[in-house]
Specification:
By secondary structure, this protein is an alpha+beta fold. Helices cover 44% and strands 19% of the residues. The chain is globular. The structure holds zinc ion (ZN). Zn(2+) binds at residues 422, 426, 445.
Length: 1007
């Protein structure tokens, strides 16, 4: 599943006439916090409770042990044959074969026997084998009726069939006994238990172990106008509204479409049939095996039986789409389905072609064939996520799969490419081998996110994604989030349905990817690849937990004669939250040696004090540290030093007074590096004199580390500002990108301070030489993507964005003249790569007519990418009447797709003139927003970060706290907890460092 990952977008400007001497302050783009999601809170309360529970639990467990031992002796004979099957079914705690200790609810066996529906997890007594699912879909009144026939095996004797259902109207239930005694079993009673979303069928007599039974259920439900389960959406074709219905089952919504064992461990085979009017077509995971048309114009499609799979990967759609297709060399038929006008204009061609190449790439890389005969890609107008990797029928929101070359920017193409690469990777990591339980969702999401970079490098080697872009977009981004005291371990306990949504956050995706990249680098590419192959081959069509992966990777290392216990290393990184800052300094008493220390990096040290229960224990990691020593012209080759203790001494190469130390070469590791001030000074001199001695990745890494170390109080505030003085000489995109990300973070803190112009002038001074040198893109591209020029184009764009955001007059005039030309000629000659910057600048600086013009273009544009850019530009206005109108129209009309409404509110909040408006609007409409998006927790969390991250005064902090106290947070409690920590850190930064920061700028010769 791809979460919506917006990169470097969303300009906004303070208002001011173009000739105003005060000149405008530009505002933050790439906003790391806004795109991040929920972090599980670790409050004192919770941990004290946990602690008490542990003590109590220990006492009870001793007592229980005595009782259970006695009972077990009595019962051992009858339970014996069931134990193996049961334990292999249960989830997690790192291994697919260990009994599950994280099973939700009360682990009281008696209760499980008498009222198994009261548990958050399904009882383990039954195991589904096969489903026959028949659905009739009525698009005229948006309802469907269904009949499911589930064949299941009894593992432990039980009278109860407990199945997930949600919002389904169950009509009739029949249970058939096993084939030894065929017949209908009498039902004692049946009922919904809504709090656990289950339907319970209690039988008169018990089902027996190792026998199979069948349950047949008929039901009805609505095709809701929302984003989950089996839902509908619409689009306009030739002035006429058309409807389609599609599914989104991950993580817990298959139960909204049919009664099922809706947990990933319950893999089964499925045979699906869909009946609908013949004017529609239908698709599902498998190809149509047989199709029957009735006299009344209804058609029934019978799809082939699926392989064993989890319920949340099932999918179907009923729509009027058309398609284009391609065939891979190994015979897999790929079809891209979309609105007929998108298909005929060729908007789907790009995604179709890269998908074909990617299937072959993954087959070669994993040495495992794609498992199904076909793969359909479906472009839908409305979807809660960027995309969903349903096996054989992956669903994408249109903006992440349709591309119009003549109007799409490079960054749009890049995002789209990465979403496709991500979803195709899931066909192996996810669909074929599925995590046992949601606590290890990073096992699929971390891999898919990591492979976004590897797979894109395969498609476009010159983009250098894995070596470069990964650093800013993944590593730097997630270290911001994981440096909060309210972060959580990547493998987190999951009990209830609301917990499940929480695990889909950037920690799972980005930290997962960063850890996998670090591990792949330590193992070496080919050994890593062999380990993955073994893992996939062993667990295909089944489930796996993290320990299964560690075992396979350790075995691959052992075969190479390298004895590293990967589980021992990786448990430190996956079971502890956060990451270390490693401090490297020259050892004064030992020649050519360094002292290395590690400590847990947290932005706000006070947060540690507020939660002593959690932070009293020492956080230590097994760190694969690479260190190089260098001087003005040369850098030593580096080797891996394993650092496991708090302080260690290690020998490195020759050193003297003028040699500097550099740690974490090419930023392969997931940690920050700090040095003494003398070493920082030497590194800065090196950057000023000859930055090429230090690799591009390390230059970007130094910038990110230095800004964040200063933000957290590890370094004086002037050190990062001094470091970026070398930027005018920097010709590479990545260090610029790292700098601008760090500067926009600072901008958020500073943009309402009195001395703000000291900061913006300082930034402009570093940017201006490069801006004037690179200029603006002049010719509009001919529609073909020039991959060789990518770095140059991206650099140019980055510098223009900085210049326009921080108020460079030339940049503003250029944007205004491009907009004026468009309005007067009615011909858009603005190069796609800078359209977002130009539109936003124009809307912010020019009068209301420009806003109306962009609003009109938003309505008339049919190109998906262009529509989105136009919509975002509307949030840049300084006119609160227009902003208010935009907010209201977005939420109450269907002019703006549901998933984009959130971005509109965040965009208004990012605009200094809309900040209070968005914050107030968010609070006023919270009930509506929470009702609409609350279940798609990722979206509501993104919204919460988006409207709160700019708050940085004591008064705003209390507004936030008051709001949280008086409103129901629902599933978003964790997002609010994190928002509070962020705003507290902002307030604290002002208290402690603002003066120091401006003092240096006032005195700086470069300021
Ligand atoms: Zn995914």
């Amino acid at each position: 599943m791809s979460l919506d990952d917006k990169r470097g977008k969303g300009l906004s400007f303070t208002q001011m006439g173009i000739e105003d001497n005060n000149m405008r302050n530009g505002r933050g783009l790439s906003d790391q916090w806004a795109d991040t999601v929920v972090v599980r809170p670790r409050t004192t309360d919770r941990n004290i409770t946990v602690h008490k529970k542990l003590v109590l639990g220990f006492a009870i467990s001793i007592l229980t042990l005595i009782i259970v031992t006695a009972i077990a002796v009595l019962l051992s004979v009858s339970f014996e044959d069931c134990t193996v099957a049961e334990s292999s079914l249960r989830a997690g705690n790192g291994s697919s074969t260990k009994p599950n200790q994280s099973q939700g609810g009360n682990p009281n066996h008696k209760d499980e026997d008498t009222q198994p529906w009261r548990h958050h997890r399904l009882p383990t007594s039954l195991r589904p084998r096969h489903y026959d699912l028949k659905l009739s879909v009525y698009m005229d009144n948006f309802t469907f009726s269904g009949e499911v026939n589930i064949e299941f095996e009894c593992v432990n004797s039980t009278k109860f069939i407990v199945l997930h259902t949600d919002r389904l109207e169950v009509e009739k239930v029949v249970v058939y006994s096993d084939n030894k005694k065929p017949g209908v079993m009498r039902i004692h009673r049946q009922f919904h238990y809504p709090s656990n979303q289950v339907y319970v069928i209690a039988l008169h007599r018990e089902m027996k172990p190792q026998r199979t039974y069948k349950v047949n259920i008929t039901f009805e439900a609505q095709i809701e106008n929302e984003l989950l389960g089996f839902f509908r959406s619409s689009y306009v074709l030739n002035g006429e509204k058309r409807y389609l219905a599609v599914t989104q089952f991950s993580p817990t919504h298959a139960r909204k479409a049919f009664p099922c064992f809706d947990e990933p461990i319950y893999k089964a085979t499925f045979r699906i049939s869909l009946k609908h009017e013949a004017t529609y077509l239908s698709l599902s995971n498998m190809p149509v095996e047989n199709s029957i048309t009735d006299d009344d114009g209804w058609v029934t499609n019978y799809f082939s039986r699926t392989p064993r799979m989890s319920t949340y990967y099932l999918a179907w759609t009923v729509c009027n789409f058309t398609y284009k297709e391609a065939l891979t060399d190994s015979g897999v038929l790929i079809r891209l389905y979309a609105r007929p006008n998108a298909i005929s204009s060729g908007s789907g061609d790009y995604a179709l072609q890269i998908t074909k190449r990617l299937l072959q790439f993954y087959e070669d890389y994993f040495k495992v064939k794609y498992s199904l005969p076909k793969l359909d890609l479906l472009a839908v107008p409305k979807h809660p996520y960027a995309a969903m990797e349903n096996w054989g029928l992956s669903v994408f929101v249109e903006q992440k799969i349709l591309l119009d070359p003549e109007v799409s920017s490079f960054s749009y193409q890049m995002e789209l490419t990465m979403v496709v690469v991500h979803e195709i990777c899931h066909q192996w990591f996810g669909d074929l081998v599925t995590p046992v339980w949601w606590e290890d969702v990073w096992l699929k999401e971390g891999f898919a996110h990591f492979f976004e970079y590897v797979g894109t490098d395969f498609l476009f080697p010159k983009w250098n994604m894995e070596k470069q872009r990964f650093l800013t977009d993944v590593l730097h981004e997630v270290m911001l989030l994981d440096g909060l005291a309210s972060s959580h371990p990547i493998s987190q306990e999951v009990y209830e349905a609301t917990d499940i949504d929480r695990v889909f956050d950037w920690i799972a995706y980005k930290k997962g990817a960063a850890l996998i990249r670090m591990l792949a680098n330590v193992m070496g590419q080919s050994v890593f690849q062999r380990g993955l192959n073994d893992y996939l081959m062993t667990h295909m069509y089944g489930n796996a937990a993290r320990d299964d992966l560690w075992n396979k990777l350790s075995e691959a290392m052992q075969r190479e004669g390298k004895d590293i216990n990967i589980k021992e290393v990786m448990d430190r990184w996956t079971l502890q939250m956060g990451y270390p800052v490693v401090t490297i300094s020259k050892n004064e008493s030992l020649d050519n040696a360094v002292t290395v220390t590690q400590e847990h990096f947290v932005y706000d040290m006070d947060a540690k004090i507020r939660d002593p229960e959690l932070f009293n224990r020492s956080f230590l990691w097994h760190i694969p540290l690479t260190v190089a020593v260098g001087n003005s012209t040369h850098i030593s080759p580096e080797a891996i030093i394993w650092v496991s203790n708090k302080t260690e001494t290690h020998k490195v190469g020759q050193m003297d007074e003028e040699t500097w130390l550099l740690g974490n070469i090419n930023q392969m590791g997931y940690f920050r590096v700090n040095y003494d001030l003398h070493n920082w000074r030497l590194l800065m001199e090196q950057l000023m004199n000859n930055h090429a001695v230090i690799s591009i990745g390390n230059r970007a890494g130094l910038i990110d580390d230095v800004f964040n170390l200063a933000r957290a109080g590890f370094l004086p505030q002037n050190v990062p500002l001094q470091m970026i003085c070398y930027l005018p000489q920097e010709k590479e995109f990545l260090p610029w990108h790292a700098s601008s990300r760090a500067l926009y973070q600072l901008d958020k803190l500073l943009d309402r301070t009195e001395d703000y112009s000291l900061f913006s002038d300082y930034v402009l001074k570093q940017v201006a030489p490069k801006y004037h040198k690179l200029g603006w893109p002049t010719t509009s591209p001919d529609g073909s993507f020039m991959q060789s020029a990518y770095q140059a184009e991206e650099l140019q764009r980055e510098v223009i964005m900085l210049a326009c955001s921080f108020g460079n007059k030339h940049c503003h005039r250029q944007a205004v003249s491009l907009i004026s030309d468009w309005i007067s000629s009615n011909k858009n000659r603005i190069p796609p790569n800078v359209r977002d910057i130009v539109y936003c600048t124009g809307v912010s600086l020019m009068d209301e007519d420009v806003w109306e013009f962009i609003w009109m273009k938003f309505h008339s544009s049919t190109a998906i990418s262009e529509k989105k850019v136009l919509l975002e530009a509307l949030t840049c206005s300084d006119n609160s009447f227009l902003l208010n109108r935009l907010l209201n129209l977005s939420l109450t009309s269907d002019l703006v797709p549901d998933q984009d409404v959130i971005d509109v509110i965040i965009g208004v909040g990012r605009n200094p003139h809309g900040r209070h408006l968005a914050w107030r609007y968010f609070r006023d409409k919270w009930d509506t927003l929470n009702a609409r998006y609350g279940e798609a927790l990722f979206m509501i969390s993104k919204l919460i970060s988006g409207v709160t991250e700019f708050l940085n005064t004591e008064a705003e902090l209390s507004e936030l706290k008051d709001f949280i106290q008086t409103s129901s947070g629902g599933g978003a409690v964790a997002a609010f907890a994190r928002a509070v920590e962020m705003v507290e850190a902002n307030v604290k930064w002002h208290r402690l460092y603002e003066r120091q920061f401006y003092q240096w700028l006032r005195k700086s010769p470069n300021g």
